[in-house]
Design brief:
CATH class: Mainly Alpha
Strand content: under 5%
Number of domains: 1
Number of strands: 0
Helix content: over 70%
Distance between the termini: 22 Å
CATH topology: Growth Hormone, Chain: A
Number of helices: 21
Radius of gyration: 21 Å
Largest sheet: none
Length: 435
């Protein structure tokens, strides 16, 4: 009696790897666009439009809570879609996640406000934010795997950075839309109906994302796992049973990359407008300039990660951010536009190092047969913690009479946790592909 030879190891080629990586980036761009649209929206419109009876402090608290809500349910979505990704495939799962996200975001654009329908709009907003959070739970991990599992080991760290471009692309798109709207529409019309436009734009972006993801193949790594019969029945359980330390490391490594965006693009925008006197338009221009720079730095950091390792790039970014956190927020108190631009650039580049190399770091920590679940759940837990960053920073600000250093405390804590986690990841050997 003879046994069949094992399935041949996947042999990716460069051309599909590039095409798939960029297709993956389009999906993360939609995710990021939706996130930033709501982040800008929450900072200026959610409170007055949906929670106005709660008063000035109450409606601001409620607005930031709607951001946190999507992050709270994100681990649930990560468990659901992570299971699907490890059992049914990366491509099919990502079609579901991007579809749910696009539809939920678009529907926010047609919600009735409190003046139009009382609390009905607020309730529906919460439901749609839950749907967004669930889909977000499975989107990032799948996008990273779609890019890395179509590539070879030499360039894997670089291709892991490409989906991370979705964050600045989404930030640029959302900020550009709001900048144009603030120029074209009077404030009254913007508050009355103009705020709906960015959400409705999610529908055409969704069609593009669905087309691109439909046109690509399943990853050769997942096909290899299926061919060898190595799929776990419950990947979630296997992940915690076999790699609990790696999960903790991945969560800590992700905190700065995600949390700094919540701090800089949500809380700092609101803080800059309410406490420092910057105009909404100036704040959006500053964040857009920082995002444009990321279009260059993310691929460069990805290439650097192929040379020295993803974990080391994450560590250098965390160390740099830790060192500049307090000086950056001290300078911001002088409230000049050039200082604002410098803050967004410097405060963006260093965390971007940690963000660009994050996918490569996580990919190296876990084996292929439960990698989707591991990446999704670790990232979702970090995102859930980060979702409370604006709220925690706001509470710290109110308790310190908005002392100049209060956002710096939060940024230093995030940086320190990521630095220690990246150091621990660098001491572990990358997980080899089985087969």
């Amino acid at each position: 009696m003879t046994t069949a030879p094992p399935a041949p190891a996947p042999q990716p080629t460069a051309s599909p790897a590039r095409r798939v990586a960029w297709a993956s980036m389009v999906g993360t761009s939609l995710e990021s666009f939706d996130f930033y649209v709501f982040a800008y929206f929450a900072a200026f419109f959610v409170g007055p439009l949906f929670f106005d009876p709660l008063g000035d402090v109450g409606k601001t608290f409620a607005a930031f809570s709607t951001i946190a809500l999507a992050f709270v349910v994100r681990p649930i979505g990560a468990a659901i879609f992570g299971h699907m990704g490890d059992r049914l495939g990366r491509r099919a799962t990502l079609l579901w996640t991007v579809g749910i996200m696009g539809v939920a975001t678009g529907l926010i654009g047609v919600l009735p406000t409190y003046d139009q329908a009382g609390w009905i709009g607020a309730v529906l907003l919460i439901v749609l934010r839950i749907a967004q959070g669930l889909s977000l739970g499975g989107e990032w991990g799948g996008s990273i795997l779609l890019a890395t599992e179509h590539s070879g080991p030499v360039k894997r760290a670089f291709y892991a950075a490409i989906p991370q471009l979705g964050s600045p692309v989404g930030s640029i798109l959302s900020a550009t839309v709001f900048i144009v709207m603030t120029v074209v529409l009077p404030a009254e019309e913007l508050a009355a109906w103009g705020w709906r436009i960015p959400f409705l734009l999610a529908f055409p972006l969704l069609l593009v994302s669905l087309y691109l993801r439909w046109s690509i193949d399943e990853t050769p790594v997942f096909e290899h796992v299926v061919a060898e019969g190595r799929r776990d029945r419950i990947p979630f359980v296997t992940m915690f049973a076999q790699r609990p330390a790696a999960v903790a490391i991945a969560i800590g490594a992700a905190l700065l990359g995600i949390g700094s965006y919540s701090l800089m693009n949500t809380y700092t925008i609101n803080y800059g407008a309410e406490q420092l006197g910057f105009s909404f338009q100036s704040l959006l221009i500053a964040t857009t300039i920082g995002a444009l720079l990321q279009l260059v730095t993310i691929p460069l950091f990805g290439r650097w990660a192929t040379r020295i390792g993803s974990a080391k790039v994450v560590a250098w970014g965390a160390l740099g951010t830790l060192l500049i956190a307090f000086p950056m927020y001290w300078l911001l108190q002088f409230a000049t536009f050039p200082i604002l631009i410098a803050t967004m650039i410097i405060g963006g580049i260093l965390p971007t190092m940690s963000w660009a190399a994050l996918g490569g770091l996580m990919n190296d920590l876990f084996p292929d047969h439960f990698r989707y679940s591991a990446l999704s759940i670790a990232y979702a837990i970090a995102a859930t913690v980060s979702g409370f960053v604006p709220l925690v920073t706001f509470e710290l600000g109110t308790s310190t009479d908005f002392a100049w250093w209060h956002p710096g405390v939060v940024l230093v804590v995030l940086s320190a946790i990521t630095l220690v986690s990246a150091w621990a990841a660098a001491r572990r050997r990358p997980e080899p592909e089985e087969g």
